[in-house]
Write a structure and sequence with these properties.
This protein is an alpha/beta fold. The chain contains 12 helices and 9 strands. A 5-stranded parallel β-sheet has the order 7-6-5-8-9. A 4-stranded parallel β-sheet has the order 2-1-3-4.
Length: about 300
C-alpha cells in the first residue's frame, strides 16, 4: 500500500514512532538508489528545499525541483493533471501548497500511485513538527520521544499551520501545550490537523503570553505575518505587540526554558536578536533536524527496515 505523509493526525502512533526512529538511526544510502523525488513548491523555503534535497541525496536518490512559475497549480494546469504527469516519472512527490485539498485531489487522480509528502499547506506543516519533536527530545530526553510526557510547551503568537501540527504531535506524546494568541488569531476546532481531537497531553488556550510561559520548558514562536498576508503587516504588528518573545517575556519563564522558531525569523517583530541568538535558543538545531525529519519520512515511505 502506498504511504503518504500529509498530516501528523493521519498517522498511527506506531507509524510516527517509526518515523522518529528512522530520522536519527543509521540508514542505508541505497534506499532511494536510482529513484527521483519531485519537489513542487508553490511557496518558497530555504530550509525545506535544502533539507529535502540533502535527505534524498543521502538516501541515494535525486531530486527535481518545480517552482510555482513552472507548474502553476490550477492556473496553468490542474492539480490532477500535474499529479498524473509526475506519477509517470516519480514514486514520491513532496509539495508546498497553498490549499491543503490539493493532496486529496492528487491522490484521487493518481489512484494512490505516487506517495505524497506535505512540506507545508495552509492547515498543516508536519515535517516541521517532526523536526521540532526531534529537537525537543534531543535536548530534554536524550532523543527518546517517549520521555516527553508532561513536558510544558508554550506557543506564543499567531496560531498557524505550524502550531496545529506541532500541537498534534506533542499532545500525542503526552506533552502539555499552551497557545497564547489574541482571540482572533487563536486555534479553532476542526480542519485537517485538529489538536482538539488528540488524546494525550492537555491543550490550553490563553491570550496572556506571560501566563503561557510561566511554567514552560519550551517557548515556541513563528512569524506574525505568514506568506500571502503581507498586506496585513502593520495591523498584525499592532495586534501582536504584546506577544513578542523577548527578554522581558522570558523573565516570567524558568532560567532553563529553551526557545524554538521554525524560521524565517522577522527579528524585532515576533522575536528579538538577544533571544534567537541567546544561549537558550535551539533554533539552529531545529534547522539540522529538518533534514533528520525528511530522512525519517522517506525511510518510512520506502518501508526501510534496520536492525
Amino acid at each position: 500500500m502506498t504511504r503518504h505523509f500529509i498530516t501528523i493526525e493521519d498517522l498511527t502512533r506506531e507509524d510516527l514512532a517509526t518515523i522518529y526512529d528512522r530520522a536519527v538511526s543509521p540508514f542505508d544510502d541505497q534506499t532511494l538508489k536510482g529513484q527521483g523525488v519531485a519537489l513542487v513548491f508553490e511557496r518558497p523555503s530555504l530550509r525545506t528545499r535544502a533539507s529535502s534535497s540533502s535527505a534524498v541525496h543521502e538516501l541515494g536518490g535525486y531530486v527535481t525541483f518545480f517552482g510555482d512559475e513552472e507548474i502553476g497549480l490550477d492556473s496553468r494546469e490542474s492539480a490532477e493533471d500535474v499529479a498524473r504527469t509526475l506519477a509517470q516519472m516519480y514514486a514520491i512527490s513532496a509539495l508546498r501548497v497553498r490549499d491543503h485539498r490539493v493532496f486529496e485531489r492528487m491522490r484521487a487522480a493518481t489512484k494512490d500511485a505516487m506517495s505524497l509528502v506535505n512540506l507545508l499547506s495552509d492547515t498543516a506543516h508536519p515535517t516541521q513538527a517532526v523536526a521540532d519533536v526531534l529537537t525537543i527530545a534531543e535536548h530534554f530526553a536524550g532523543g527518546d520521544v517517549d520521555q516527553l510526557r508532561g513536558l510544558e510547551v508554550a506557543y506564543v503568537g499567531d496560531a498557524t499551520n505550524v502550531t496545529r501540527s506541532l500541537a498534534v504531535a506533542l499532545l500525542g506524546l503526552g506533552a502539555n501545550v499552551t497557545v497564547a494568541a489574541p482571540p482572533v488569531y487563536q486555534l479553532t476546532r476542526g480542519g485537517a490537523e485538529d489538536p482538539f481531537a488528540v488524546e494525550g497531553g492537555s491543550l490550553t488556550l490563553t491570550d496572556s503570553p506571560d501566563e503561557a510561559v510561566r511554567h514552560a520548558d519550551v517557548v515556541y514562536t513563528d512569524a506574525w505575518v505568514s506568506m500571502g498576508l503581507e498586506a496585513e503587516t502593520e495591523r498584525r504588528r499592532r495586534d501582536f505587540a504584546l506577544f513578542q518573545v523577548n527578554d522581558a517575556l522570558l523573565k516570567n519563564a524558568k532560567p532553563s526554558t529553551v526557545v524554538l522558531h521554525c524560521l524565517p525569523a522577522h527579528r524585532g517583530d515576533e522575536i528579538t536578536n538577544e533571544v534567537i541568538d541567546g544561549e537558550n535558543s535551539l533554533v539552529w538545531r531545529q534547522v539540522f533536524h529538518r533534514r533528520s525529519a525528511m530522512l525519517g519520512v522517506l525511510r518510512w515511505i520506502k518501508k526501510e527496515e534496520h536492525d
